[in-house]
Design goal:
It contains eight helices and ten strands. By secondary structure, the chain is an alpha/beta fold.
Length: 253
């Protein structure tokens, strides 16, 4: 059975409903200058339903004084946080109390790791100068590795939070403060070489180049020991790097 909010969303009166609510919020205010509780509750519920966060009455909205209290369930951390954000956008002068629980169907550990990796690798910002590994245990995802821009840490954490089965994220990603001249030179040498040419455009490039204070870390997976050794030698002899750490793994055929 469809909920009242779903009926509204799927009917042809959405525009009329929005205009009616806007009018109510503008004119039907109490003496303290705020919209009535019932009007505000309806508008919050509409906003949540429009963004597919309120389905089959999974969220309850309660207004108590200057607080809007959200209770219920969502399947992902991202949806839980998004529900609070959407509510805050509707009612800027209220305090949003987010008591929504994250509950989800059973997903195997390997499937969670695979799904988190897939989301991060498909993120437009993930590339040659970043390296993220995913670990999962008891509902907690731990992200380890390196990013070359500090705000990428939150980008990749959000991707993990969108995966069903993840109840919290432990973000241990470290900053490299950019690849610098050594990192960019290493990337040109490797990905202009016929052995790796064009592979830098893969969603998850085979070789990731991490630079820290003159030390170059090569992370990723290649098809043979020859590829690993060749990439390492290109960096060792032609970039001016002080130390090379070849952490490349070889994919077994």
């Amino acid at each position: 059975m469809k909920t009242k909010m779903n009926i509204i969303l799927n009917s042809g009166v959405v525009l009329f409903f929005c205009l009616t609510l806007f009018t109510q919020l503008t004119f039907a205010k109490s003496s303290n200058g705020h919209p009535s509780k019932s009007t505000l509750k309806i508008f919050v519920e509409y906003r949540l339903a429009k963004d597919h966060l309120l389905n089959d009455n999974n969220i309850n909205v309660e207004i108590n004084g200057n607080k809007i209290i959200l209770t219920g369930t969502e399947q992902t951390i991202y949806e839980r946080n998004q529900a609070a954000q959407e509510t805050q956008d509707v009612a800027e002068n209220y305090v949003v109390v987010n008591n929504i629980n994250v509950t989800s169907p059973f997903v195997s550990d390997s499937a969670v790791v695979k799904n988190v990796q897939k989301r991060i690798f498909k993120n437009v910002f993930y590339g040659v100068f970043d390296w993220v590994t995913v670990h999962y245990k008891n509902g907690i995802v731990t992200l380890k590795g390196w990013v070359h821009l500090p705000w990428y840490k939150s980008q990749f954490q959000k991707e993990a939070e969108k995966v069903v089965g993840v109840k919290s994220v432990n973000n241990e990603l470290q900053n490299t403060f950019g690849p610098g001249n050594i990192g960019r030179r290493a990337a040109r040498l490797i990905y202009n070489d016929p052995m790796f040419e064009g592979m830098e455009y893969y969603s998850n490039p085979p070789i990731h180049i991490i630079v820290n204070n003159g030390t170059v870390l090569l992370e990723g997976s290649v098809m043979s020991e020859a590829q690993s050794g060749w990439a390492s030698n290109l960096v060792r002899y032609y970039t001016g790097a002080i130390t090379i750490k070849d952490n490349l793994s070889v994919i077994k055929g």
